[in-house]
Amino acid sequence: QLCWDNCKTYNIAESDIYRMAEHMEKLAKKTINKLKLSSKETKKKSKDESDEEEDIVTDPNCVSFEDKVKFTEKVRKLAPEGLTQLVKMVEELSPTAITDIDSKRLQIKLDDIDKETFAKLNDLLSTQVREDIEPPQ
């Protein structure tokens, strides 16, 4: 995701690189989702074939990949004020999840945020972002 974000950040929206990054981002997301579905189907078939196998346990404290993708899409739609609120909330609730990249950029590592904190951040985003608005270009 960082690769596509960088391509779109550092290139003009009408450029070939920007358009290719958008295309590749969509393609990558589709492929990842297909692989996940395929993996789930394979796991289900294996379970059906052998009742002796253990169920695959997922950590109830982990945030799903799909939820992280939705979260990221909401963040991209935030106005600067909303983004500032989000960063402050992350700094307060999960300071280890935020890293300064340089003087103007930072990174929020969603994998380092627990499910409860993620839910609070997602609630903040829900109040700040309307789903029918396209992200700024």
Keywords:
137 residues, mainly alpha, globular, two-stranded antiparallel sheet
Structural class: mainly alpha
Count of discrete alpha- or pi-helical segments spanning 4 or more residues: 5
Are there runs of 5+ residues with pLDDT below 50, and where?
A: 51-57
Approximate helicity band: 55-70%
Mean pLDDT: 81
Tell me, briefly, the overall form.
Answer: globular
What is the spatial order of strands in the main beta sheet? 1-2
Q: Please state the CA-atom Rg, rounded to the nearest Å.
A: 18 Å
| Strand residue percentage | under 5%
What is the strand tally?
A: 2
Biggest sheet character: 2 strands, antiparallel
Distance between the termini: 17 Å
What's the helix-strand series? Answer: HHHHEEH
Can I get a quick summary?
By secondary structure, the protein is mainly α. The protein has five helices and two strands, in the order H-H-H-H-E-E-H. Helices cover 60% and strands 4% of the residues.
How does this structure look, described?
It contains five helices and two strands, in the order H-H-H-H-E-E-H. It has helices spanning 2-9, 16-49, 65-76, 80-93, 115-128, and strands at 98-100, 106-108. A hairpin with a 5-residue loop joins strand 1 (98-100) and strand 2 (106-108). Helix 1 runs antiparallel to helix 2 (16-49) and helix 4 runs antiparallel to helix 5 (115-128). The two termini are 17 Å apart.
Question: Could you outline the blueprint of secondary structure elements for this entry?
Answer:
Layout: H1 2-9, H2 16-49, H3 65-76, H4 80-93, E1 98-100, E2 106-108, H5 115-128
Antiparallel strand pairs: 1-2
Helix pairs in contact: 1-2, 4-5
